[in-house]
Amino acid sequence: MNLIVENESATTAEAVEVLMERLPASKVARLLSSWQVGQADYLKLRDELFAGETVESLYEAAGKTKG
Question: What 3-state class would DSSP assign to 50?
């Protein structure tokens, strides 16, 4: 039996996809920043997390999460 072990970045990418399905992008970004301080390319991650978003759409989404 062969065991295929994915590299860490593939596992992280999959985990981010799962988190993005359940949490707002702002919470995912905060979580990742606390986990990976100094270990990730924030500019690349930012572009991936907020692709297609505008300041207005993020403001609207943030307003919906307030309780």
Answer: coil
Task: Give the model confidence (pLDDT) of 15-55 as tens digits.
Answer: 888 998 999 888 888 888 887 666 667 778 788 888 898 88
pTM of the model: 0.46
- The residue count of the chain comes to 67
Question: How distant, in Å, are the alpha carbons of 28, 34, 58 from that of 64?
Answer: 16, 24, 10
Are 44 and 12 contacting, i.e. CB atoms less than 8 angstroms apart?
no
- Estimate the crossing angle of helix 42-49 against helix 25-35, to 10 degrees: 160
Contact 49, 28 (CB under 8 A): yes
